[in-house]
Amino acid sequence: LYFADEEGGGPVTNTFVEHSGPAAILIGPEGGFDDAERNAIRSLPQAHPITLGPRILRGETAAISALSVWMAVCGDWGKSDHSGKE
């Protein structure tokens, strides 16, 4: 579980590489997570907080950005077989 925390986390590309495999990316609501939500998520052993950088992104833009980076680092974009077969 990658958790986009506006209050800080590991650099997104480094964290994706360190914890590759099946993924879920959690993007918060506009205005961010409240303290109780953030603490609950951070208490999960499978949660890895990430940062999407210094820019303030809307929720839908943050989701697209995070998924794009994940696909570039760990997903299909890195495969060299262009035949469509895996």
Which SSEs are present, and which pair or pack?
Blueprint: E1 2-4, E2 10-11, H1 12-18, E3 25-26, H2 35-42, E4 48-51, H3 59-73
Parallel strand pairs: 1-3, 1-4, 2-4
Helix pairs in contact: 1-3
Task: Count every helix, treating DSSP H or I runs of 4 or more residues as helices.
Answer: 3
* Strand order in the largest sheet: 2-4-1-3
- The helix-and-strand class reads alpha/beta
Tally the beta strands. Answer: 4
> Tell me, what is the CATH class?
Alpha Beta
Helix amount, in percent?
Answer: 25-40%
> What count of domains describes the coordinates?
1
Which regions are unreliable across 5 or more consecutive residues at pLDDT < 50?
A: none
Q: Tell me, what's the shape?
A: globular
Mean pLDDT: 86
Which fold name is given in CATH as the topology? Answer: Alpha/beta knot
**CATH-wise, what's the superfamily?**
SPOUT methyltransferase, trefoil knot domain
Name given to the CATH architecture: 3-Layer(aba) Sandwich
Strand content: 5-15%
- Rg from alpha-carbon coordinates: 14 Å
Q: How many strands, what sense, and barrel or not for the largest sheet?
A: 4 strands, parallel
